[in-house]
Every structure is written in structure tokens, then in C-alpha cells.
Amino acid sequence: MAFSEASVIISTMRAYKHPDPQDFVLERILYALSDPVRMEIVRCLAGVTEATCGELDGGRPKSSMSHHFRVLRDAGLVQTRSVGTTHMNSLRLDALDGRFPGLIGAILSHK
Asked: What is the CATH number of domain 23-109?
């Protein structure tokens, strides 16, 4: 593959859709957090600014993790951005606290 072809592939990676905070639905957030894998991802992200999918996968299959990240994004819990071929994830704590003050802090305080 020539350099120009690689550039086209990287530059056309799809941007992820993230809901606006006013569109967050409590039931969707609670559903996303009801899965132990997704809860583990959120706990990890609560302790860092950003992390790659690989840092958060715990050795699980990529297809399984793609599903978990999609559920977290759709609920508004996680922001994913592409940096080249890497996906960087962050917890949307400010947006979540703006919509549901104290919810995530209360959930994360219980182990």
C-alpha cells in the first residue's frame, strides 16, 4: 500500500456519535453500568484522563469490547476519539454530572 493510500484510509475512519447531555436517559446509563465489564471500563476511566481500547480490554476479544464501548457511548458515559488508528476513550464526567448531579460519583463510590 502506498503512503497516499494509507493516508486516505486513516483520514476516512468514521467519527463516533455521542449523545448530547440533554439527551442522556437515566435508564440507558443504568443499563450500561449493569454489566460488570462496562462497569470496570468506567471505573478505570474514572482514574485517568484517557485510555486506549487496548488498555481497557482486559484481554477480552475485540468484537466483545466493541459492543461494550458502543453501549457506553450510546448511553453518554464514554467519549471516543480517533488518533490515527488508535481510539482514545474518556469518561464524560462533567456532562454526566451536569445532567444527573452526583450520580456517577455515587455509583463509583460503591465497590
From this structure: 1.10.10.10
Which among 83, 82, 106 has a CA at the least distance from the CA of 96? 106
Annotated domain spans of the chain: 23-109
H or E, element range at 33: helix 26-33
Per DSSP, which regions of 1-111 are E strands? 51-52, 78-83, 86-91
Residue at 63: amino acid letter: S
* Phi, psi dihedral angles at 42 (to 5 degrees): -65, -40
Global pTM? 0.84
pLDDT digits (tens, 9 = 90+) for 22-70: 999 999 999 999 999 999 999 999 999 999 999 998 899 998 999 999 9
What is the Cα–Cα distance from 66 to 35, expressed in whole angstroms?
Answer: 14
CB atoms within 10 A of CB 103: 16
